[in-house]
């Protein structure tokens, strides 16, 4: 049991691990045991209760302060407790590192959602070990002397709204449309309300800028990039009889069940092809065909999977994943669900095989990818075509947006 808990924490982070432990303990509980009384103040995946109650954007809206005369800014990021391997924290860390390199003083402030206990020191160690950034992390109660604060999720937006420091410019780093993470209920409406707080939004891609603007939110966006030096093909491309799948069973928006059904259909038509799952520990899942469980991989390991695979099934039902551009750089065909959420960010390209988010349709596109007669040549052409897809322009654009909104002159 302990070894499984440790493995889950390393590969999936604290939130998923706590959920698994809770589920396991629930199965082991005695039938005669009395159910615990539900505490409204400690519902899972909620901001602190008092922060929601205090955030009166209707009667006391956030007023953007005057611009300031400074070259280098003190920039704070509010964060939930952090685990290794999170896509959201990976993207944030990219921009934090760049802002540090430009001379800005950047720090994180830890906001405790009700289900997770983590110290600032633990979070700081994870940022350094798993995300490669040396950044100070403090408790939110210690917040002071900042010019800019970024909310990074809907729960931290409540904490940011309630910060009363004078002349504090408030931004919202929006990486997905978070209301749809939940059913239509309290969490949906509370997440939705944060787009009305008056913060300036910086969104991951153009689709999200359009979404938040529906709530009257001013926003700008950055384009996605890829670590070209890691993912590009470096030798002659020789594909194996292999495809891969971005498998995130605990993340609803990744369409895990649809993906598994599509892969079952594909496997029946192409039994000689290996299928590798990555993105999550799948050791406890009963999958109806043979597959290789790769779990959480680092960038170099991902590059190897991409280089060997003809195609990758990667589903994004809300904002697009970071993976498709990485796959294109690596010469691996992305098979994806169609939709504005994907096309508005990635653009119109014949290199991505879009189709309906339905098992039969996705399986057919996987078959189309592997049945090409020029698989290796096509992979090399794709990789060459996307060699310029770096993050550098996005880093520069985000700094320019901050300076434009905050600095006078």
UniProtKB/TrEMBL annotation:
<dbReference type="InterPro" id="IPR048510">
    <property type="entry name" value="WsaF_N"/>
</dbReference>
<dbReference type="Pfam" id="PF22772">
    <property type="entry name" value="WsaF_C"/>
</dbReference>
<feature type="domain" description="WsaF N-terminal">
    <location>
        <begin position="138"/>
        <end position="197"/>
    </location>
</feature>
<keyword id="KW-0808">Transferase</keyword>
<feature type="domain" description="WsaF C-terminal">
    <location>
        <begin position="241"/>
        <end position="366"/>
    </location>
</feature>
<protein>
    <submittedName>
        <fullName>Group 1 glycosyl transferase</fullName>
    </submittedName>
</protein>
<dbReference type="GO" id="GO:0030247">
    <property type="term" value="F:polysaccharide binding"/>
</dbReference>
<dbReference type="Pfam" id="PF21374">
    <property type="entry name" value="WsaF_N"/>
</dbReference>
<dbReference type="GO" id="GO:0016740">
    <property type="term" value="F:transferase activity"/>
</dbReference>
<dbReference type="InterPro" id="IPR055050">
    <property type="entry name" value="WsaF_C"/>
</dbReference>
